[in-house]
Specification:
This protein has five helices and four strands. The protein is an alpha/beta fold. A four-stranded mixed β-sheet has the order 1-2-3-4, covered by helices on one side.
């Protein structure tokens, strides 16, 4: 079941939540500074965030469709027909980039873990040695304590990577992969819906 508060904001169709956008031009959906061919263009940042954030707001099992409303005269143009493929390609590329980031961060975490463990081991050995041979020397005890603390501090970065930094990348990749499998429909402006602000100042179409 979809959360009632979210359900009240989105249209549904055949069990799918609709991610709806109303455009006045096909090019509003894309980054105007991207020189790539149309099918390979990047989406506008706000368009990408709007789609991804909508998916993120719902439970993982929720099914979505993307519905893009265009003026009647644009529906059958070549650019319009290429929009679904361009959107899907964009999010599949984003998923690949997230996987690359994950791998790079994972390798970095492995390296820092080796460095951290080595530092902790060395610091512990030296600390125990000082404590053993100079048990009554205050300066030696302070150095031993400082070394021990330094060794554990060296472990913070690898621990942070493996416990906190990798999993958001995995979660975001799954969102992009899910969007990359969605159906995308082009439809003419809905006759009964109120006027919707021009994208990228995008809001979802209110239910009527």
């Amino acid at each position: 079941m979809i959360d009632n508060a979210l359900d009240s904001l989105y249209h549904t169709e055949d069990g799918y939540v609709l991610i709806e956008m109303k455009l006045f031009s096909v090019m509003q959906l894309f980054n105007s500074f991207d020189p790539a061919p149309f099918r390979e263009k990047e989406l506008d940042n706000e368009a990408e965030a709007y789609i991804a954030d909508t998916v993120k707001d719902f439970p993982p099992h929720t099914r979505f469709r993307i519905v893009i409303y265009l003026p009647n005269g644009m529906i059958d143009t070549r650019d319009a027909r290429e929009v679904p493929e361009a959107v899907i390609s964009h999010f599949r590329y984003r998923a690949l980039m997230q996987m690359r980031k994950f791998r790079e961060r994972y390798v970095e975490g492995q390296f820092k873990l080796i460095v951290g463990l080595s530092s902790l081991t060395l610091a512990t050995v030296v600390s125990l040695t000082l404590a053993h041979y100079f048990p009554e020397n205050t300066a030696a005890q302070l150095i031993a304590s400082a070394l021990e603390i330094t060794g554990w501090v060296a472990m913070w970065e690898p621990i942070s990577i493996f416990l906190y930094q990798l999993w958001p990348l995995v979660k975001q990749r799954k969102i992009y992969e899910k969007i990359g499998r969605m159906e995308i429909f082009l439809r003419p402006y809905p006759k009964s819906a109120p006027q919707v602000p021009e994208f990228p100042s995008q809001v979802i179409l209110p239910k009527v």
